[in-house]
Design a protein that fits this description.
Length: about 230
Amino acid sequence: MIDTSDVLVIVPIFNEINNINFVVRDLSKWFENIIFIDDGSTDNSSELIQKLGFKSIKHLLNLGQGAALESGFEYFLKTKDYKYAVTFDGDGQNRAIDAFNMINLAKNDNLDAVIGSRFLTNEYLPEIPYFKRFVLKIASLYEYLFYSIDFTDAHNGLRVLKRDLIRDFLLPINNHDMAHASEISYKICKSNCIYKEFPVRVKYNNKKTQNSLNSINILIKNLFKPFNN
C-alpha cells in the first residue's frame, strides 16, 4: 500500500451535515490528512467537523466552491509536508478508493495531475442521468473548441494535483462560482504539465447535484472568457 502521508485531501463543503460522517469514514480508510473548507454553511457543518477532530477552515460567507478550493490550496502550500493535493467533493458523490488509486497512478508515473472522468469506461455510464450525461458531453466539447481543454469529463471535482502545479499555475483562482472547474482545467492544459485522466464512479443516489441547466448557463456566461492569470 502506497504512503499517503504527503497527501492532503481538500474537501469543500456547503451545508453538508448529512454527508460529512459518510465522507469522513470513506476518506479515513485511505488518507490520514484531510481538511474541510466550510464555505459559509448555516447547518452546523463546522461544529460537526470540529467534534470529529478534523482540520477545517470556515468562510463567514458563502463565496463559492472556487473560493473554497483556493483557501484549501493556500493552506496546502503553507504546509511543507504535502506534495500532492486531492480535491474531493463533500456531498458524498466521490469515492475515496478512486482518489487513492489516482494518487497511486500519480506517484508511479510521476504525474503532475490526475483528473477523474466518468466517461473513460462504459461501466458507470448507465448510472449517470441521461440529460446530465448529455450536458457534460456538450460542456466538454465546448471547452475543447474554445479553450483547447481536452478532458473527457467537464467539471469533475475529483483531482490529484502536484505541489508545483498548484503553486506555479493554478493560483489565484479567478472564478469563485462553478466556472472555477473550467479555469482549473484550462490552466492544467496550458501549463504543459504531465497529466492523465482516470476512470471514476460518481454516486448520484439521494445526492444533490448541480442543476444541469446551470452548467449551460455557466458555458454561456464564460463564452470566450480568458482563464489565465
